Amino acid sequence: MKRMIMIAGLAAAMCAGGWIGVESQPEGMEGMPAGMPDMEQMLAMMDEMSKPDTTQHEMLKKFGGDWVLTARFKMDPTAPPEVSTGTSKGKWILGKRQLMSEVEMDMMFMGKEMDFSGIGIMGFDKGTGEFVSTWMDTMGTGQMRQTGSVMGDTIVMVGSAKHPMMGEYTLKNVLKFVEGGYNMEFWEKGEMIGPEFTNTGVIEYRRPNKKLMDG
Questions:
Q1: In CATH, what class is 56-206?
Q2: What pLDDT, in 10s, does the model give residues 81-93?
């Protein structure tokens, strides 16, 4: 039953994508649009598209495992950055197709210390050819969804959201690999910040030791 549901779903997706020809329908595919591949072809396509086997998936491995975090953010561009510390743990889910990161921080925000927790999920969509991510945390009830790609030796992710305090804004994260880990830069623009991207902070991810995520 599960196999048939998956096949029907793929068939619907291909119909929506315009895979319709004028050839006669193969035996056993009555009722499907002409030009649809047979069942074995569909299963082979599903198998190929579901494999996390791209160079981008290989890059995601670098974000897994345990991290020590140092965050530096500026609410006021004329003032020194507020420094927060914390930890992050990245682990594979869904058969190493998606990477889930759980973050815990003692955050300094506008001069006050507060507990902060967040969860992010990041993967690479072979269908669209883009990195995709979703982030949610204890500073709001919404989610930030981003898409992005490799640019040189960095990954650039961009998404928009609406926050009760900040209004509508666009966030660009630039992930740069450095010795001992990587940096996640924050560039923002929007109603409160202004129409041009402004660097508002960075989170430095460093290994507490040399332990790496299982490949």
A1: mainly beta
A2: 999 999 999 999 9
Query: What are the backbone dihedrals phi and psi of residue 152, each rounded to the nearest 5 degrees, phi first?
Result: 70, -120
What is d(CA 197, CA 143) in angstroms, rounded to the nearest whole number?
A: 20
3-state secondary structure of 119: strand
Structure pTM? 0.79
List Cα–Cα distances, 214 to 9, 43, 53, 92, 138, in angstroms.
32, 29, 15, 9, 29
Of residues 195 and 19, more confidently modeled: 195
The total number of residues written for the chain in this structure: 215
Q: In whole angstroms, what is the distance from residue 156 CA to residue 175 CA?
A: 6
Q: Residue 116: in which H helix or E strand, if any?
A: strand 112-125
The DSSP call for residue 214 is -
77 exposed, middle or buried (CB, 10 Å; 0-12, 13-18, 19+)? exposed
Residues 6 or more apart whose Cβ sits within 8 Å of residue 135: 118, 119, 120, 143, 144, 146
Domain ranges of the chain: 2-50, 56-206
Positive/negative CA dihedral, 71, 74, 78, 83: negative
* Alpha carbons 66 and 102: distance in angstroms, whole number: 10
